[in-house]
Amino acid sequence: MRTRFGVCRRKRRYVSEADALEVVAKATIVLRPYRCGLCRQYHLTSRTKGMRVPRFVLERVMEEENRRAESIF
């Protein structure tokens, strides 16, 4: 899916994927970085269906699910 100009203008830009991943690591929701075809920098999106999600994000989600399951029992 191609980023529209108005969306690109409103989103925060990151020079490198590593910079974007630092923000993803601190986020309270699941995010993933992607390279914008317009500005050639990186943005973040919460759309992850069918997309590559960083491993540390998946591990964090699994840990949270395990904690919830343990608190139920």
Notable characteristics:
73 residues, mainly alpha, 2 strands
Structural class: mainly alpha
In spatial order, strands of the major sheet run: 1-2
- The helix content, as a percent range, equals 40-55%
Number of helices: 3
Outline: elongated
Largest sheet: 2 strands, antiparallel
Unreliable residue stretches:
none
Mean pLDDT: 84
Strand content: 5-15%
Question: Terminal Cα separation, in Å?
Answer: 42 Å
Total number of strands:
2
Give the SSE order as H and E letters: HHEEH
Gyration radius (Cα, Å) is 15 Å
Give a description of the structure:
The protein is mostly helical. It is built from 3 helices and 2 strands, in the order H-H-E-E-H. It has helices at 5-10, 17-26, 55-72, and strands spanning 32-35, 42-45.
Give a brief outline of the structure.
The protein has 73 residues and is mostly helical. It contains three helices and two strands; from the N terminus they run ααββα. Strands 1-2 form a two-stranded antiparallel ribbon.
SSE layout:
Elements: H1 5-10, H2 17-26, E1 32-35, E2 42-45, H3 55-72
Antiparallel strand pairs: 1-2
